[in-house]
Amino acid sequence: MPGIAIIGLQWGDEGKGKISYLLSKNAKYVVRFQGGANAGHTVVIDDSELRFNMLPAGSASGATPCIASGTVVDLNEVVEEIELLKSIGIRVQPLISKNANIVLPIHKQLDEILEKMRSREAIGTTRRGIGPAYSDKALRIGIRIEELLHHASLINKIELLQNFHKLSLENMDELIKLAEKLRESICDLEIILNDELDNGVKIVFEGAQGTLLDIDQGTYPYVTSSNTTIGAVFTSCGIGPRRISDIVGVMKAYTTRVGAGVFPTELKRDEADMLRERGREYGTTTGRPRRVGWLDIPLLRYSIMVNDIDWIALTKLDVLSGFRKIKICTEYEINGKIVKIAPPNVRMLEKAQPLYVELDGWSRLSEEEWKNIVMKGWDALPENAKAYVETVEKLLNKSIKLISVGAKAGMEVTK
Ligand code: IMO
Ligand code: MG
Questions:
Q1: How far is CA 362 from CA 265, 278, 324, 381, in A?
Q2: Residue 172 neighbours by CB distance under 10 Å
Q3: Domain assignment of residue 7, given as a range
């Protein structure tokens, strides 16, 4: 089982970082395959909180971090996160595909300008230059990592980019300095990954964002600019689909969304505040308060379907403790019809009336009590927490093999 893919099933922030860290423990490589520094993946080891935007969070386990072709790379972040790994005693040179595109300051500036132009229809992007970097890639004027090694053509290409956008922001000296630091990292990642997979080496592919933010399969236009679903692993890394033995879906025990766009099960006012505070739902990358709501089964069914998920890792179950009643949206009513699997189409979702079941909650537990539960395993969970997990499994027709409580690594219950 050499290839394991980790895919977010909601609107991002499902806790992929923690799950990737856990699953990367005996892997040789962990690979980011889409997106850029818009991701915010956190790993909490003992009392230190490590935040990754560009390198895969799984690399905190010692697996070599890789950045594949389909990403848009923020070089400053790479350099900073190499230092972050050093701070926990991990000295590695990441492997970066020659073909990956670079995010330049001009892209961040354009992201900002575009959001302002959209005015009331702003997406609420992370301002990390993601959309503009991917659009330059599609226009075939984007700059690939490989160009960092060829200064003369790099200058020409940057000139073209600046002329096209009628903005000049790039500081060549800065770029060349960064390139020097990363020279050893630039490689034909596709060849390395395929060779290693031939040798039976375990590789984890760490998805960023979530299925509902996929540019094709998500709530367009309120999405990110990459494919976040399973196919991106293959197109980005240049590996075939048979290389992946496990497709792991990561979902939070409730729903969150940061940025604009439709959200059928969104909570307002007191209930929202309570869930947001308990879950500490503030963006890792931007610090924005996240919108919060109950679990949305019709959308999750869609996410599971399009990724052909094998099993689920459920995160932040502990956050639901202390709610007297917990709701789960099991289906929608749209124009008088019952919808069980919902395509994330904005027009349709705007009309969706969520239909809920209500489950009894369980009381709040101290960290010590949770630690004890983690030690003892599934049977030690409060009965109503078990009932919640089993209800979700039944509704999704998928097994939840891993339940994560709290932010700290090691706080997981396996079934
Ligand atoms: P992780 O990997 C949550 C959201 C932004 C915005 C939309 C487009 O931590 O789950 P972009 O900057 O990508 O053009 O913004 O996508 N978004 C995320 N939301 N988690 C993320 O990453 C996200 N990355 C982008 O808030 O709504
Ligand atoms: Mg995040």
A1: 21, 14, 7, 10
A2: 11
A3: 3-95+186-248
Is the CB of residue 300 below 6 angstroms from any atom belonging to ligand 1?
A: no
Do 84 and 218 reside in the same domain of the chain?
A: yes
Catalytic residues: 13, 41
41: left (phi over 0), alpha (psi -120 to 50) or beta: beta
Per run of 10 residues, the mean pLDDT along the chain (length 415 residues) is 93 98 98 98 95 98 98 98 97 97 97 97 97 98 96 94 91 92 97 98 98 98 98 98 98 97 96 95 88 98 98 98 97 98 97 98 96 97 98 98 96 92
Q: Which residue has the tokens 């490589």?
A: 29
Q: How far is the CA of 38 from the centre of ligand 2 (A)?
A: 8
State the distance between the two ends of the chain, measured CA to CA, in whole angstroms. Answer: 20
d(CA 252, CA 256): 8
- CATH number of the domain residue 301 falls in: 3.90.170.10
259 alpha carbon, closest ligand: 1
124 Cβ inside 6 Å of ligand 1: yes
